[in-house]
Please model this.
Amino acid sequence: MAVSTINSNKINSDLVKERAKCTFNTVELTHLLDGGAEKTNERKSREKFFLEDPELRLKVPLEYLSHKEKYEESIRIACNIFKKVNQLQSEGKGGMDNFREILGGQLGSALLKDGNPLTLHYVMFIPTVMGQGNIQQQAEWIQKAWNCDIIGTYAQTELGHGTFIRGLETTATYDPKTEEFILDSPTLTSYKWWPGGLGHSANFAIVVAQLYTQGKCHGIHPFIVQLRDEKSHKPLPGIKVGEIGCKMGMNCTNNGYLGFENVRIPRTNMLMKNNQVLPDGTYVKSPSSKLTYGTMIFVRVVLVQDAATYLKKAVIIATRYSAIRHQSQINPNEAEVQILDFVTQQYKLFPYISMCFAFQYAANWLWDVYNNVTGELESGHLDNLPELHAASCVFKAVSSADAAQGVETLRLACGGHGYMTSSNLPQTYGLVTAMCTYEGENTVLLLQTARFLIKTWQNKSNISKLPTVRYLETSLHKNIPFEKSVKWIISTLQQTTAGKINLANEHINQRVKNGQSYEDAWNGTSIELTAAAELHGRSIIVETFYNTVNNLKKQTSQQLGAVLQHLLELYAVYTILRSTGDVLRFTNVLGRDVDVLQLWLEELLAAIRPNAVGIVDSFDIRDEVLSSALGAYDGNVYERLFEEAQKSPLNSDPVNKSFHMYLKPFLQSSL
Amino acid sequence: MAVSTINSNKINSDLVKERAKCTFNTVELTHLLDGGAEKTNERKSREKFFLEDPELRLKVPLEYLSHKEKYEESIRIACNIFKKVNQLQSEGKGGMDNFREILGGQLGSALLKDGNPLTLHYVMFIPTVMGQGNIQQQAEWIQKAWNCDIIGTYAQTELGHGTFIRGLETTATYDPKTEEFILDSPTLTSYKWWPGGLGHSANFAIVVAQLYTQGKCHGIHPFIVQLRDEKSHKPLPGIKVGEIGCKMGMNCTNNGYLGFENVRIPRTNMLMKNNQVLPDGTYVKSPSSKLTYGTMIFVRVVLVQDAATYLKKAVIIATRYSAIRHQSQINPNEAEVQILDFVTQQYKLFPYISMCFAFQYAANWLWDVYNNVTGELESGHLDNLPELHAASCVFKAVSSADAAQGVETLRLACGGHGYMTSSNLPQTYGLVTAMCTYEGENTVLLLQTARFLIKTWQNKSNISKLPTVRYLETSLHKNIPFEKSVKWIISTLQQTTAGKINLANEHINQRVKNGQSYEDAWNGTSIELTAAAELHGRSIIVETFYNTVNNLKKQTSQQLGAVLQHLLELYAVYTILRSTGDVLRFTNVLGRDVDVLQLWLEELLAAIRPNAVGIVDSFDIRDEVLSSALGAYDGNVYERLFEEAQKSPLNSDPVNKSFHMYLKPFLQSSL
Model:
């Protein structure tokens, strides 16, 4: 037969049927998710502006290029993206929110699937100068950076230190004679390692270093350092810079290393909004050092959103493919069925559909809390910061871990084809799993949340003012009769969490009684502590989802309201069933109640089945963003897989030169 | 500071200390794992023969090459490997066992980290001709293949069909006039897709196709088909062949696609050991079609071994790195600690150390059962085949899924550095996760085991002869008083499994009562069925581990016996704690018993801590095989990370050409 070429007007007939049987208006859901029809239009026009520009398209799929070629091609595209960003700015359509989306978010990852080497300029360099520079520094540097006269990055992590930033080794020693700081890398482990764009792209960096002045170390501070000559781009004397090599993903982000051999910078290059070093070397400490927490928490809000975005992409791909793929029989005398009809397949897909909503609403909620608390901070009111910090830590940890597991489950649900790069699932996994270790390693973050929980448990005096942990006051001894409702699930999850925290606290006390220091006892109990924190995080996420849906249902059609209710219930039942062991240990729930929950789960899978394709369609993610042979809107899966294979440069010659060089001589020698 | 170069004589001081405090003789454990000192020596000399040959070394790390260059470089190395294999053969040291190890096993994956394009020639092509060809066919083809006059592959999977092989679409229609089969690909989905080496390497293939003769379809059969001209390597007329493109891993295996446009092959190219087509087109069916099960089960034994091997590599890397990496404090006034001292880190590592042993012993046990049952098959005795099939399905599913999760957990336990290609953890994950979908998709396999379990549950008449399921007869109603022992854990896991199978069976019956067909009821209950099968598999693995250690302890030193006992106990406790929910539902275990188990787990982590590095050292895997900057024996982690980065071709120029082409013009235009 002749291999057909793709005709996007021809929609796969299974998808046509799925879309016809959908019980709600998918456009209504799209608008709801975007925050209104106007927002949808804005998004669509931004996507059009970027995605339909031929200058932003790759010449060959990235995966076929060498590592070096990938970098060169992505610098070309990154410059073209920046030009368009500048154009938007000049039209008054700029702003930081847009930058993030264009450089790192859903749109950004469509333009450069494996990362953008210039992203940190807008996402870290400029915001750090804005947040930590004084007025003069802002005037000087933000202008240059905004105009792209310079390209900056942010160099914090070192070969030897990541999440534990107090341990960083790079030094900045003040020399009052010349009014300069001397930057130095005293060890190999003090080399900066990881910053995006540092390898060969940026010519400036914010460098985080231990500040020494008048013979004393004052801890880590940020400095602006020029790395390369602005004209020749050659590294300046004393600057050792290069790229760190290949990674599991993000091979176009040009992550770099950086070492200093006594590099001198002017005193005024230390960012001094908070702490200062005076010309004579006197160190002046700011009273409000907690203010720098803000950026860190902001980044975590963004990461929870990113987790939802990655998961959405994977869930669209896997759901459409499962509607198209026919394989095996349920009844031996009938035809092969859509794999979406296998309950085990639904179980791999639908909980993650509901999780997309759960994480998006969790991110929205965290964003609101963040804005409230930073407002309070400005007026010197710090009481709610620990709770916000605890919530942001656990949300980041839970959303990144669950989204990563989700993307991988969805990839595997596509069988062998999910292993193909042309499915875009392997790359999506490479990006989402990175979130588990960057911006705070997940286990460390869970233990930070656990510390807040144990502290609250030990001293409940202030608890009524802390909405996310208020339940700890009473839930341990509540009598919660079984009920097939989300409200019941929330109360039960809370009681279980309280039970886990209580037990962990007891175990710490026992270990201390047995002669351990509190810190060793904490370490000895840390498996239980992380598990308690995780469950706490999930129970807030279920509650947030519940509150959100109850609000939204007031404004949606009845049909859409029913869909949201199904998704909420599925996420809630799925979450409690993941923790059956703890629930049975710490509440009065019985084995037969678990049976009811399992049946409820199966009912919900069946209820969502007819709307599955409709729901993922509503995410309204363009084919260029999905970038997947398995997930395209038209469903021409096999034609696309075949077409993508044809793009392999190996397929341009029927006989590869290695046949003549190696294989033929070998075959003949054996004759 | 000057960046130091690696001195492998300088062993990292933390590793020196760890090795000094080890309580047992690591060489004793190495010999035990290899099956005796002689086997260890054989392995070591084989490794030396291959790994120290400069002709088998890559010129540049694979990850920096383009997709096409990767292929060309791996064909060069694959030919050199085959030459050495031929040399071994001529010295009488050949044999199929060795081939697998050299081409695909631990050694093979060191020689070609991302797959060998010629592997299927020895691993699938030759064995299939041997297993399914008649005497004449063996005489004709095995000689040619063994001499490497031809290079073969095995083409079964199609774009549209994987695990459900009955659905394959490629046709082989017999034409009695010319005594030929006509091979045809009637649809795009019937194109062969995935076979290794098919793209541009092999010139022959075993093709699995639906056999039509005298107007009737007789199901799938294997045919030998020539694909390319032996001299020019050009595809023969009617053969559409190429490679399928990039994948998550195995980018050097040259996986290909293959379509036929009425390609004629002689009748005698159908492999006819079992079924035959006579010259006039008469189809003659073999009475013993179950014999072909053998190869499939054999492959699964190998996969369980592979799962253990991948896990060993990852666990060595992560354990050594965790002993070397210092980060954060336990007590605020003390120095930063080895991350191996964090209990959460031990919890990420040590259960997977114990799992390496569990899977290796499970593979050994399966291998023995396989040999017994195939022996019985030859004498026409088929009774034990279903049980062996059920065990091989669940072992493959559980070992691949758990090993994949393990490798990924271990990768994440190395923080950001685990994301670096130079850690070799991302590639190891890419290889191990592929096992979840190839050679039978895991969910499908679990359901096959579940079918055997439910059948046995419904009819226990023969159960006393079935050692792996005998427990189902009595364990449901046993009274098992709590006891801190592995024996108790095994009984409790069995009781839990019996409870799950019983409940699933009830749910199927209820659904049938409610009017569903048995098949729909089965599908509706399939989430519970897969979970029951999984637990059944894990309980056999714990039991096998228990029996093996009890035997081994008779021959080992007391010190090594104690270490094996710790590992056994850890695997058992870890396994039962994973299923706490089910255990609480289906047995009399109480919450306070779970407390005891949790504490036991923590005690075992502490007991294994001093021997952790010693145990992974005993796996005795050479640095070339680990291929990891984080895992090398000398522990010079940071020096190696830095050295690997220097190999990036991007680092050979201080200024990349893209600066002049794109970045500089952009920066200037914005001035």
Summary: Residues 343-378 of chain B form the longest helix (36 residues). The mean pLDDT of chain B is 94. The two ends of chain B are 37 Å apart (CA to CA).
